């Protein structure tokens, strides 16, 4: 209802204002225009799709990355129509986990998957997806996992600097299947019946490329060309672009591309600083982002950026991505034996978060993040809390 005046002398005018507001379905706390609950087709309305929610900042439709802590760092989730680039860790141990969480979240929510790889058959990738923790009966296992990995320092009440008190707390714990974002048990595999009931498309490069294929000079590599054609066909044929209405309830297409830019894709940017295909990857990303912007789809890409010789290519790849997350493993580094990082397996860098409909992107304000892989869970935490155990340590 419209705001009611407290003065009795204006009761009559207030009543007419309420009547006017009731007719137009607009209150003093609402914006004039079509509402999300309107059922007619007279104007645009908020799309209601399982596994999505609108951003509280700009109303953009979001999907979960499959890692709720990462969703929080990205402003609530990954925006539909955007690219999430994962910079692989040196030995490619932890980046495949984020890749699989993203796909597993799609299966749990009934989204359509498109899995592309030049290394591993997509069918085998799906068989390795982690099992979801969906309800309260899983909470006991979750609590046991957290308890087994608690450090003695975590039980000591300490006064924390104001900087760390104001940091957002990472959400942990199993949730209902109806909520946005789920947790997954890395020690178990996705139930076979869920995989069989899902709608997915696989692109395995060795099966798509012919040895007799002719390549035009100054064009995309054959692998990138075939993949773009495959993605475009799925988007158009299944109506994710809106031109061909989907037969069933509207849905999201989740695209996962593994090890993009590696020599397995026929690219030489990891082998030479100025190779013959130095612009092929950036052209691919430019066209891919155009397809995503005009469709109900979201994409995750893992890329071995540490192997790319030309740093200018890395800068262009970052510019053509909407969200960039880097993983830095401690394996083989001095930090592996540093007591400061004894509870963690690596650092996670939020290099770029999207500012949609703008020419520039934002940088995350949270810099001190580390990850660890427990027996069942992949978690993200503020690594500087370890300093509380080493008050005299200088860094």
Question: Could you explain the architecture of this structure?
Answer:
There is one protein chain. With 395 residues, this protein is α/β, with parallel strands linked by helices. The protein has one domain: P-loop containing nucleotide triphosphate hydrolases (Rossmann fold, 3-Layer(aba) Sandwich), CATH 3.40.50.300. The chain has 11 helices and 14 strands. Helix 9 packs parallel to helix 10.
Helices and strands in order, then pairings?
Blueprint: H1 11-24, E1 52-54, E2 61-63, H2 68-73, E3 78-79, E4 83-87, H3 95-108, E5 112-117, H4 122-127, E6 130-133, H5 139-148, H6 162-165, E7 183-189, H7 192-197, E8 200-204, H8 205-208, H9 222-237, E9 253-257, H10 280-293, E10 297-303, H11 311-319, E11 323-329, E12 346-352, E13 369-373, E14 378-382
Parallel strand pairs: 4-10, 4-11, 5-8, 5-9, 9-10
Antiparallel strand pairs: 1-2, 2-3, 6-7, 11-12, 12-13, 13-14
Could you write a compact summary of the structure shown?
With 395 residues, this protein is of the alpha/beta class.
Q: Averaged pLDDT, please? A: 77
The domain count comes to 1
Radius of gyration: 24 Å
Largest sheet: spatial strand order: 8-5-9-10-4-11-12-13-14
- The global form is globular
What CATH first level would be assigned? Alpha Beta
Give unreliable regions as ranges: 1-31, 33-44, 149-177, 387-395
For this structure, the quaternary state is single chain
Total beta strands: 14
The second-level CATH architecture is 3-Layer(aba) Sandwich
Strand/helix succession: HEEHEEHEHEHHEHEHHEHEHEEEE
| Derived structural class | alpha/beta
Find the CATH topology.
Rossmann fold
CATH homologous superfamily title: P-loop containing nucleotide triphosphate hydrolases
Largest sheet geometry? 9 strands, mixed
The end-to-end distance, rounded to whole angstroms, is 57 Å
Summed up, the helix count is 11
Pathway: tRNA modification; 5-methoxycarbonylmethyl-2-thiouridine-tRNA biosynthesis
Subcellular location: Cytoplasm; Nucleus
InterPro entries: Elongator_complex_protein_4 (IPR008728), P-loop_NTPase (IPR027417)
Pfam families: PAXNEB
């Amino acid at each position: 209802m419209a705001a009611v005046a407290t003065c009795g002398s204006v009761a009559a005018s207030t009543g007419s204002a309420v009547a006017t507001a009731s007719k137009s379905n607009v209150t003093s706390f609402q914006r004039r225009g079509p509402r999300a609950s309107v059922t007619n087709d007279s104007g645009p309305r908020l799309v209601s799709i399982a596994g999505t929610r609108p951003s509280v900042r700009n109303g953009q439709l979001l999907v979960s990355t499959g890692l709720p802590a990462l969703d929080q760092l990205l402003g609530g989730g990954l925006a539909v129509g955007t690219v999430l680039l994962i910079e692989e860790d040196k030995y490619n141990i932890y980046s495949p986990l984020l890749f699989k969480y993203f796909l597993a979240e799609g299966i749990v929510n009934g989204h359509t998957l498109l899995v592309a790889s030049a290394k591993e058959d997509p069918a085998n990738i799906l068989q390795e997806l982690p099992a979801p923790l969906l309800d309260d009966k899983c909470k006991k296992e979750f609590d046991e996992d957290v308890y087994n990995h608690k450090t003695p320092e975590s039980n000591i009440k300490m006064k924390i600097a104001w900087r760390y008190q104001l940091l957002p707390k990472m959400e942990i714990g199993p949730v209902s299947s109806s909520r946005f974002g789920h947790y997954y048990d890395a020690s178990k595999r996705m139930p076979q019946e869920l995989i069989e009931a899902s709608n997915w498309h696989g692109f395995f490069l060795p099966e798509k490329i012919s040895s007799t294929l002719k390549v035009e000079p100054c064009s995309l590599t054959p692998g990138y060309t075939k993949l773009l054609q495959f993605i475009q066909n799925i988007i158009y044929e299944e109506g994710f672009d809106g031109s061909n209405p989907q037969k069933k309830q509207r849905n999201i297409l989740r695209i996962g591309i593994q090890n993009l830019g590696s020599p397995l894709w026929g690219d030489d940017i990891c082998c030479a600083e100025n190779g013959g295909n130095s612009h092929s990857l950036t052209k691919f990303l430019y066209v891919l982002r155009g397809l995503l912007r005009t469709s109900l789809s979201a994409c995750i890409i893992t890329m071995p950026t540490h192997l790319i010789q030309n740093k200018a290519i890395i800068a262009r790849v970052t510019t053509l991505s909407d969200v960039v997350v880097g993983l830095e493993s401690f394996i083989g580094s001095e930090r592996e034996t540093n007591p400061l990082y004894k509870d963690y397996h690596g650092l996670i860098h939020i290099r770029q978060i999207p500012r949609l409909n703008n020419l520039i992107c934002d940088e995350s304000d949270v810099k001190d993040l580390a990850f660890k892989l427990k027996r069942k869970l992949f978690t993200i935490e503020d690594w500087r809390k370890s300093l509380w155990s080493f008050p005299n340590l200088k860094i």
